[in-house]
Design brief:
Length: about 170
């Protein structure tokens, strides 16, 4: 692949990231404007509802009001995602890994935006059937893609393919 194709792929990744962020932030704005201060909206009674929550911590409210911890973690994940994305070979086989990386980065940035500007994360999706913590679209990006990442690393990619991404460029090994 030539440098022009690499640039197009990087621009597509940035465009995808921006679209994912817009969707995440749009759903949170909808939650604020339509759910805040309102009764839950049961979409599937006893199973799934829309429930507004201002999350000042992580799942189940752990580390409440420790926004700096989450900002540091999100920034670290974002830096790691960018580095890994740029180190991946520009091959068709790496497309799933590239897409997963973009989704994880979008999720991290989406919740980071909330923490920076609202000082809490807007959550609004609730599986009452299993009393799962209330979550949002960014959380879906991160969780689903983390699972996909594990599956791809274990069952799809060969060790040699992944070693080329994680190996230092100046290493003679």
């Amino acid at each position: 692949m030539n440098k022009n194709c690499h640039m197009k792929e990087k621009l597509a990744a940035i465009f995808g990231l921006v679209l994912l962020l817009i969707f995440d932030q749009w759903t949170k704005l909808l939650a604020i404007s339509h759910l805040k201060g309102q009764a839950d909206i049961e979409l599937l009674p006893g199973i799934f509802s829309l429930h507004y929550l201002e999350n000042h911590g992580a799942a189940f409210g752990i580390l409440r009001d420790q926004q700096w911890v989450f900002l540091i973690l999100a920034a670290g994940f974002l830096v790691a995602a960018v580095i890994l994305y740029l180190r991946m070979p520009f091959t068709a086989r790496m497309i799933p890994l590239r897409i997963i990386t973009v989704f994880i980065a979008a999720g991290a940035v989406g919740n980071m935006i909330d923490r920076l500007f609202r000082h809490y994360v807007v959550d609004f999706l609730y599986f009452s059937l299993i009393d799962f913590p209330v979550f949002n679209v960014a959380d879906i990006y991160i969780t689903c893609c983390a699972v996909l990442l594990v599956l791809f690393v274990v069952f799809y990619y060969k060790d040699e393919e992944l070693e080329s991404i994680f190996q230092r460029k100046d290493s003679k090994l």
